[in-house]
Amino acid sequence: MPDNEMSVFRIVSRRAGRSAWYDSAMRAPYGLEIIENCVACPHLQERVFCNLPPVALQRLSAITSPSSYPKGATLFVEGQTARGVFILCNGRVKLSTSSADGKTLIVRIADPGEILGLPATVTGKPYELSADVVEPSQANFISRADFLNFLRENGDAALRVAQQLGDTYHAAVAEMRSIGLSHSAGEKLARFLLDWCASHGSGKGEIRVKLTLTHEEIAQMIGSSRETVTRLFSDFKKKKLLQVNGSTLVVRDKTGLEGLAGI
């Protein structure tokens, strides 16, 4: 491959406090499917914001900086001045908020195709959440100035942004309803597992889903404690509702889990 066709990716690890450079001619870091160019992205048709007219897509690619991140890396922090958005191409990122006494609530887990930091970048206010990588990910950065100019020039893109803002709002309301109106920690966990399987699972009988979140992170999502989540998982397994094999969760009795969730 000619030198001028090679893309260089910077992998930033805030946890380790160091950075490394990888060349696209080498093996992709973390085993990721690196998407070097928005125009050549294999997921265009299935992702709302990326499925744009060719001219807009070329412009988007020109203002985008591709980067890959290891698990534990931080994209931005709650209260930080918004400097731009991150388009999540691969992997997952947790979005959380913290109280003054250090308690953390995970608002949601972002999936590939989402634009992170969108509300703050559009309004010019500080990031309202922190974004931390939960598995090796590719997140392409666009500065605030470039992103706003891009929206002014491309009505289709502006419409897609409005759609994501609407989806985010509805997801936040559903999350508040689940946490605020559930009567017990068991009901909250059952609802969380069913929602996770609905968006990430596979299988018509037993549902299998990859669940890389720790018990602490799940507790932060349902407003509970790690000890309670661990106890509930053990209880669910004893009742043969589910089983856990490494990072694979198998729901053996969806009906029973729905009963606990009050559905």
In brief:
This protein has helices spanning about 55-60, 120-125, 145-155, 155-180, 185-200, 215-220, 225-240, 255-260, and strands at about 10-15, 20-25, 70, 75, 85-90, 95-100, 105-110, 115, 130-135, 135-145, 205-210, 240-245, 250. It is built from eight helices and 13 strands.
Based on the structure given, which CATH architecture of the largest domain is correct?
Sandwich
What is the straight-line distance between the termini? 56 Å
Tally of domains: 2
CATH fold name of the largest domain: Jelly Rolls
Question: How many helical elements?
Answer: 8
Structural class: alpha+beta
The number of strands is 13
Strand order of the largest sheet: 3-10-5-8
Q: Assign the CATH superfamily of the largest domain.
A: Jelly Rolls
Quick one: biggest sheet?
4 strands, antiparallel
**Residues in β-strands, percent:** 15-25%
> What is the overall shape?
globular
Q: How much helix, percentage-wise, in residues?
A: 25-40%
Q: What Rg do the Cα atoms give?
A: 20 Å
CATH class of the largest domain: Mainly Beta
Average pLDDT metric: 82
SSE pattern: EEHEEEEEEHEEHHHEHHEEH
Question: Which stretches are low in confidence, meaning pLDDT under 50 for 5 or more residues running?
Answer: 1-27
